[in-house]
Each structure stands twice: as structure tokens, then as C-alpha cells.
Automatic annotation (TrEMBL):
Entry protein name: Exocyst complex component SEC15
The keyword Transcription is assigned to this record: no
Entry keyword annotation includes Coiled coil: yes
Keywords: Coiled coil, Exocytosis, Transport
Transmembrane segments: none
BP-aspect Gene Ontology terms: Golgi to plasma membrane transport; intracellular protein transport; vesicle tethering involved in exocytosis
Recorded superkingdom: Eukaryota
InterPro entries, per the entry: EXOC6/Sec15 (IPR007225), EXOC6/Sec15_C (IPR046361), EXOC6/Sec15_C_dom1 (IPR042045), EXOC6_Sec15_N (IPR048359), EXOC6PINT-1/Sec15/Tip20_C_dom2 (IPR042044)
Family assignment from sequence similarity: Belongs to the SEC15 family.
Function: Component of the exocyst complex involved in the docking of exocytic vesicles with fusion sites on the plasma membrane.
Organism: Leucosporidium creatinivorum
Length: 787
């Protein structure tokens, strides 16, 4: 239920108070807005209390009061007020007069200022026209600047000043076209700026393509110049190494060699015959960088260079038929290609991908290795191998100097070296074998000093002794040399082989140890297989003592050659490392020497056997030999040996003669011993034993007369045994001290065999001539040594 609100009711005094308060605020405030604001609450109260009439009545009363107050105030100041009104009236009259005068003056001014206003209007119009003209001029100038810049851009593009043209286009787009974009030509020009940029890019791209074609065409000339310069460096460095052993270990492109070669610097890209201007490439890179399209150019350039590399390889997929000229042309192209790549790589601030260049290089190396391998397959010409090695080595050294990896190519060189070594061995193996087979085993004869010098210059001879140079030429000419023609011919081939070998190995500074070892093995193989062993095989077909003695002399000279060759090899490799070289062929020739001497001994022994066939011993003799003379066959045999040694084998050195003489005498001793030890005779008498003892004493005396210590002990065992068996003190053999002093070489088993034959004779014959004491001694010793 709504509650009725009670209307407010104001008493007359309250209404009067509100009006007084309003009057007070009106008097204090100078703003009408404030009066209205103070009036608002009163009006609201009138409305709410519905006491309009009371308020109006109270307002009339309030106004009447105030008027009364005003009249009271005026009544007190009436004269002053009247005076003030009179003054105001006079001022008003003056003001009206002044107003009329101002109006008159205004009319006069209006009349006189009408012309000025017209002129001012005309002036303003003129100024407005001038401003329009200035604006038009400014606009035309802006347009002209734009058109001028467009013309300059076209001129710059025509003059191939592409970077400046791009800068002008940038300025045109960002600065000069903006003020005139409301004109159609400016909008058209703005839209054509990308086309102009594309035209610039296409222009520099065409220039780059043309440059790449020119660079490819010039690659061979660049490569040829670089390879020729490296060959010259190699020759200079080789000459320096020959003069200064201290730099022998240094190689081409090493720090020492680079320091020496600085004054001979050669620029293969800029010289009297070749000039490659990289400006088109640099300009293209710069333009693409400006256009923020560097990656696009990199990919395009990379693809083009890879295509050029493949084109180069496809043109020379194989060198069939293989020739050094074709190989040189291929290597020149490759060197030129990769020198340009190296220059671009190091001068374009990572424009060229190093990995891509390395991939191209690795692929090129693989193709070169395959081409060389296939081209040399079946080749048997050492000169072609040598030329190939020289070309490839120069190629390697050239590109190694530009920091390219050459491991594959070094492996190729080592492969070429191994194949060349095998080829040389095959070639010289045939030569050595033929030289040995063609040898007539006769002393080589030289007719004059010139021939002698030629032979001496190629042969290794002892520094002293009977076979030294001074001793050999002493007798005069014509001169029979101690060796046959086999020796100097083999020396020539050995020197040629070594020279060709080291000629090929030149430049392998880091592989000298392997190269020296391969050469040593190769020389050993040639000397052992083709010389020493061929001589050994021929020995079985030769029976002539003179030829055999010539072989001995030849083998001795080959031993001298081996010793000198060891020294020579050390000298040849002395600039690489120290140490000694030992050839196994020296031992092989020593074995061949022994076999040859044994062959001589064997042939002499065969002849000696014929003398022994004439031997006749009466093993059951009852009487001692009448004289101390030896048997006739022994005297003939010794005469034969002496004749052989003094005539047929005269050219043998003393130690070899001693070897042969000792061998022959040892064979003689063996045969004489066999008479005692063989099954027959089964019985021997004391007097029969005396005949053999007489011959042995004679032989021992003959050997002693030779005064050669190497022969003194040949008949010692036989002599001691016969002295024991024919002497009176047979029991001394059982005495250790006496046996050691007089019969140290005598073997018990052999004494047993002879004593058995003596005992058999004693038992078989009652008239053996032996005393009881003798028989007892024989039986005692036989019994003692049989235990």
C-alpha cells in the first residue's frame, strides 16, 4: 500500500527568509549563472508546497521594501544624483555629436578607401595567380626531376652502372615520386620500377654468363701458365737442393720453399698472356646483394660451374688412345678451372660454398685417377709412365699450393710408382737375363785407353788391389780385363735402372723411406733372380774350368758392385734420411761364388778319380815299401793339380785358389781314407798299411812345402791315424793325454774299422809277419774301443 507523502508547508517568515537569502547571494555573486543556481531550490520548494501565491505575495512585499529603501537612499543624496544625471546628459550629447562626426568621417574614409580596396583585391588576385604559378612551377620541377632521374637511370643501365641505377631507382621510389603520385605518369613510372630492377638483374646476369663462358675458354691458358710456373719452381728448387744439402728434406709448397720462391711469384690469372677480369662477377654479386637475392645467384652460379665441370669431364671421359699431350691438355683445363674457383672462393666473402668446391674437386680427382688408370692399362713404355708421373706431380704441386686436398692424387702417384717399378723390373729382368745367357765367359779385351775409360766409368771396381783401376791399366793395351762383358753390361743396366727409378721418385719427399725400400727390394730381385740365380743355373751346363774360373771372377766383381751400390744408394737418398742400406743380393752372390768354386772342385775331383783308378795297393804285402817315394799315380795327380792351378785357374784370386786347392786335396784325402774304411779290402797287413802311410806322408810333405796355412790341415786326420796304426805305441790311443796331443783328429770308429781289418789279417794267416806284441796291442786297443 502506497503511503501518502506530506507536502511541505512554509510559513511566511520562512518564505521571507528564503527571499532574503536569495537577495544576499545575488548581491555577493557577479554571475547570473550563480543566481539561477540559487533560484532553483526556491522554485523547487514553491512547486512542492504549492504556495505560489504566498511566494508572489511575499516577493511583492520584499520588492516594496527594497524600493522603499532605495527611495530613502535617494532622498538623502538627491542633489548629487541630479548633478550626475545632468553631467550624464551632457556627456550623452557630446557622444551623439561625436558619433555623427565619426559617421561623417567613416563616409569620407569609405569614399577614399574604395580605390584602395579595389587595388587590394586586384593585388590578392595577382598574388593568388602568382602562387598558382609557383605551385605549377614546383610541380613541373618535381616532375622534371622525376623524369630526369628516370632518364639517368636509363643512361646508367645503358652504361652498365647498375648499382648507381638501383640507387637512383630507390631514391625515385622512396623520395621523388611521392609528391607527384597523383599524376598518372608518376603512377605508371612507380609501377615500372620493378621492371627496371628486373632488367638490371637480367643485364648483370647476362654479363655474368658471358664472363663464365670467357673464363671457361681461358681456363686452359690459366692452367698451362700455372703448370709451367710450377715446373720452373721445381727446377729451381731441385738445383738449390743439389747445392744445399740442408734443404734436402724440404718439399715444394713447404714453408722453406715458399719463402725462397716469393721473389718468383707468378699470377696465373693476371699476366702478360692471360687476363681474367672478375668485375662482372663482383658486380653481379653486388647487384644481387642490393636486390636481396644473393642466395638465388649462389644457386645459379653453383649449378652453372658444376655444369661446366661436368662438360669438361664429359669431353675427356677417357683418353683413348692415351697420350701425354691429351693428359696435359686435360690437366691444364682442370688447373685453370680450380684456380678460378679458388680466387672466387677467397675474394667474394662466402659467396662460393667451400663444400661445393671441395665436392667438385673430389669428383674431378676421382675422374682423373680413373682416366690415368685406364689410359695406362697395358702400357709397357717406361717413358710414358715417367711423363705421366711428371704431369700428375706438377698438377698435384700446383693445386696443393692453393690448399686443395691432394690425398687421392698422392695415392695415384704411389700407384704409378709401384707400376713403374714393376715395369722397370720386367724390362730390366729380360735385359739382365739375356746378358747372362749371352756371356761367353771370356775375359773382356779393350784395345785402347778410351775403351778402358768407358768400361771403367760404368763398372764398379775395387779401390785397391790387383783389380783396381791403376793396377788393371798398368800392363798397357790391348788389355784383357779380369771380368767378361757380362759385368760392365750389368753395371750399365743397374745404373740405368737406379737413375730411372730415382728420376721417377723425384718429388715424393714424404715417401722417400718407402721408395728407398722398394728400390732396394727391386735391385735385390734383379740381381738375385736375374743375375745370381741365372749364373747358378748355368753352372750345371758348364764343365770348362776356364769358364768356371771366369764366372768366379765375375761373381767377385758383382759382390764389389753390391757393396758399392749400397754406398751409392745411401748417397742418393742422403738428403732424405741417414742410415745404411743392405742388399740381400750380396749374400746371394756369396752363395753363387761358393757354388761355382764347388763346381770347379767337383770337375777337378772327377778328373782326380781317373788317377785313383790307376792306384794299386798290395794290402797284404809282406815287405815294407823299398823307398819313401810316393806312388806314381799320386805324383801325376799332384802335377795335374799344380798345372791346373798355375794355368787354367791362374786368374782366380788367392783365396779362391786356396778354396779350390783345398777342395781337391780334401777329395784326395777322402779317397785315400775310403781305402781304409770301405768294405774292401777286408784284410790289411801292417806292410800293406805302410804303403798307404808312405803316400800320405809324401802328400803331407808336399802340402807343407806350399807354405799355405789354409791347406795345412787337409791330411791331418789321415796322417794322424796312419801314424797311430803304423807306429810302435798303439796303446797311446787309449791314453787321453797322449791322444789329445798326437791323435786329436782321429775318430774312434775309423780306428776300429782299420784295427778290425788288421786283426782279420792276423787271424787268417799264421805267417802274417806281426809280432806277438803287435798282435796283442791291436787286440787290446780293439777290445778297449769296442766296449
Amino acid at each position: 500500500m502506497a503511503h501518502n507523502r506530506r507536502r511541505p508547508k512554509f510559513s511566511p517568515s520562512e518564505i521571507q527568509s528564503q527571499l532574503a537569502q536569495l537577495h544576499l547571494f545575488s548581491s555577493l555573486s557577479s554571475s547570473s549563472t550563480s543566481d539561477i543556481e540559487q533560484l532553483g531550490p526556491i522554485l523547487l520548494n514553491i512547486h512542492k508546497s504549492r504556495q505560489q501565491n504566498d511566494y508572489l505575495k511575499a516577493l511583492k512585499n520584499f520588492v516594496a521594501e527594497k524600493e522603499a529603501e532605495i527611495e530613502a537612499v535617494c532622498a538623502r543624496n538627491y542633489q548629487d544624483f541630479v548633478g550626475s544625471v545632468s553631467a550624464l546628459l551632457r556627456v550623452r550629447q557630446g557622444t551623439v555629436s561625436l558619433k555623427h562626426r565619426v559617421v561623417e568621417l567613416n563616409e569620407e574614409v569609405q569614399k577614399s578607401g574604395g580605390g584602395v580596396a579595389d587595388k587590394k583585391k586586384a593585388l590578392l588576385d595577382a598574388r593568388r595567380v602568382g602562387q598558382n604559378i609557383d605551385d605549377a612551377i614546383d610541380t613541373l620541377q618535381a616532375c622534371l626531376r622525376v623524369l630526369d632521374m628516370a632518364s639517368k637511370v636509363a643512361k646508367l643501365i645503358e652504361d652498365e652502372k647498375f648499382f648507381s641505377a638501383l640507387r637512383q631507382l630507390e631514391d625515385l621510389q622512396t623520395t621523388h615520386l611521392k609528391p607527384v603520385l597523383h599524376y598518372p605518369f608518376a603512377s605508371l613510372m612507380l609501377s615500372s620500377i620493378p621492371t627496371s630492377r628486373n632488367a638490371i638483374r637480367e643485364s648483370v646476369t647476362r654479363s655474368l654468363k658471358a664472363w663464365m663462358y670467357e673464363a671457361r675458354e681461358a681456363s686452359r691458358a690459366v692452367g698451362k701458365g700455372a703448370l709451367d710456373a710450377m715446373e720452373a719452381r721445381g727446377r729451381r728448387w731441385a738445383a738449390r737442393k743439389r747445392k744445399e744439402s740442408s734443404v734436402g728434406l724440404a718439399k715444394i709448397n713447404g714453408p722453406i720453399e715458399l719463402g725462397v720462391s716469393e721473389r718468383h711469384e707468378y699470377n696465373p690469372l693476371e699476366n702478360d698472356t692471360v687476363h681474367i677480369d672478375f668485375k662482372p662477377l663482383y658486380q653481379c654479386i653486388h647487384i644481387y646483394d642490393t636486390l636481396d637475392a644473393r642466395e638465388e645467384l649462389q644457386l645459379s652460379y653453383q649449378a652453372d660451374r658444376r655444369a661446366q665441370a661436368f662438360l669438361l669431364l664429359s669431353q675427356t671421359a677417357s683418353l683413348t688412345p692415351f697420350s701425354l699431350t691429351a693428359l696435359a691438355a686435360l690437366l691444364e683445363e682442370i688447373v685453370g678451372f680450380f684456380l678460378i674457383e679458388s680466387h672466387v672462393l677467397h675474394t667474394t666473402n662466402s659467396f662460393r660454398s667451400e663444400q661445393d668446391v671441395e665436392d667438385l674437386w673430389d669428383g674431378m680427382c676421382e675422374r682423373v685417377v680413373r682416366i690415368v688408370d685406364e689410359g695406362l692399362a697395358g702400357c709397357e713404355d717406361p717413358e710414358v709412365f715417367l711423363g705421366t708421373k711428371f704431369k700428375v706431380l706438377t698438377f698435384v704441386q700446383t693445386l696443393e699450393g692453393y690448399s686443395y686436398s691432394v690425398n687421392q692424387l698422392n695415392n695415384l702417384l704411389l700407384t704409378l710408382f709401384e707400376r713403374y717399378s714393376q715395369l722397370l723390373q720386367r724390362k730390366f729382368s729380360g735385359d739382365f737375363e739375356q746378358i747372362v745367357l749371352d756371356d761367353d765367359h771370356q775375359s773382356m779385351v779393350v784395345n785402347d785407353a778410351e775403351e778402358f775409360e768407358k768400361v771403367v766409368s760404368v763398372s764398379w771396381l775395387p779401390a785397391s788391389g790387383e783389380w783396381s783401376v791403376s793396377e788393371l791399366q798398368a800392363p798397357g793395351f790391348p788389355l784383357a780385363l779380369p771380368f767378361s762383358q757380362t759385368y760392365p753390361l750389368c753395371c750399365i743396366d743397374i745404373r740405368s735402372f737406379t737413375e730411372q727409378y730415382y728420376q721417377f721418385s723425384e718429388g715424393f719427399a714424404e715417401h722417400h723411406r718407402d721408395i728407398d725400400d722398394v728400390l732396394r727390394k727391386a735391385l735385390d730381385n734383379l740381381l738375385i733372380k736375374q743375375v745370381s740365380e741365372n749364373i747358378q743355373r748355368r753352372l750345371q751346363m758348364i764343365n770348362n774350368l776356364s769358364q768356371l774360373s771366369q764366372i768366379v771372377v765375375n761373381v767377385l766383381f758383382f759382390q764389389t758392385a753390391c757393396s758399392d751400390l749400397e754406398t751409392l744408394l745411401v748417397t742418393l737418398r742422403a738428403t732424405q734420411r741417414g742410415g745404411t742400406i743392405h742388399l740381400d743380393s750380396l749374400a746371394s752372390f756369396q752363395h753363387t761364388l761358393t757354388l761355382t768354386q764347388d763346381r770347379i772342385v767337383s770337375n777337378i775331383s772327377q778328373k782326380m778319380d781317373s788317377f785313383f783308378e790307376e792306384a794299386e795297393y798290395n794290402w797284404l804285402a809282406t815287405q815294407p815299401p823299398p823307398t819313401n817315394e810316393a806312388s806314381g799315380y799320386l805324383q801325376d795327380l799332384i802335377d795335374f793339380l799344380s798345372t791346373v792351378m798355375m794355368s787354367v785357374l791362374i786368374q782366380l784370386p788367392e783365396f779362391s785358389k786356396d778354396y779350390v786347392y783345398r777342395g781337391a786335396l780334401s777329395h784326395c784325402a777322402m779317397l785315400l781314407m775310403s781305402y781304409l774304411l770301405d768294405r774292401d779290402p777286408q784284410r790289411i797287413s801292417d806292410n800293406g798299411l805302410m804303403y798307404l802311410a808312405n803316400d800320405v806322408r809324401w802328400l803331407a810333405a808336399h802340402v807343407a812345402s806350399l807354405q799355405n796355412e789354409r791347406l795345412n790341415d787337409v791330411f791331418v786326420e789321415l796322417h794322424q791315424m796312419l801314424a797311430l796304426l803304423t807306429g810302435p805305441n798303439l796303446h797311446d790311443f787309449l791314453n787321453p793325454e797322449a791322444r789329445q796331443m798326437h791323435y786329436s783328429r782321429v775318430q774312434t770308429a775309423r780306428v776300429h774299422t782299420v784295427l778290425t781289418k788288421l786283426a782279420a789279417h792276423y787271424n787268417a794267416s799264421y805267417n802274417s809277419g806281426a809280432s806277438a806284441r803287435r798282435r796283442g796291442a791291436v787286440e787290446d786297443v780293439l777290445r778297449a774301443i769296442s766296449r
